[in-house]
# Entry
Amino acid sequence: IPFNTIDTALSSLKNSQSYINSGMDIATKIAFDLVESFNDEEDVDSMEKVMLEYAAMDREINNYIRAFEETVNQVKREKPENIPDFENLVQEKFTAIESKNSDSDLQRNEKYMYFMDQLKEMKKQFRHISDNGNETIEQIDEDIAVTRSQMNFICPITQMEMKRPVRNKICGHIYEEGAILEIIQSRKQKKKKVRCPKMGCSHVDVKGSDLVPDEALKRVIDSQNKQ
# Structure
């Protein structure tokens, strides 16, 4: 079996995933734009459906890649005398894997989880009102916004207002991206772990891979600074 041909096919599948990831990033940005510009809740919800569709495509490709890899390993292990119907073997494994799918799989997609989490944060800054029977989104009371800004805008490392906030997926605390990455790099050179800089946090192993951009908070900070 020409395994180099199989590697090329796998590479194409993984390349397709990168397009799906880009699509999910764009859908996330559109949803945030809709919330920020006071669009109807229905429009925002439609982006969640788009994200679930992307998550379903991502799962399908992951399952196909898994079926491919398991079949390759099986053939290499068994070394059959006759060349098997590789495509049929892959399809059988793929069907078996797909049969175990559930809706909850899609909601565990990392980009979908990020989307929902950030959308929730965005909506915290806005509230729903009814205007002649139509649902719209309106910015929250300015006093509340100011109070929140005082609590959330300051980086625990620099003690300055954040420009590029990132949130730790493990403990939930937020830092200025450059500041936390500098600490991680410095401690890494000394082969030491990084404790979360937020006072009172018990998390003692902050990794760069655990940090995600907090787009919702960044938009709120930018909005406050424009006022």
About this structure: The first helix runs from residue 3 to 36.
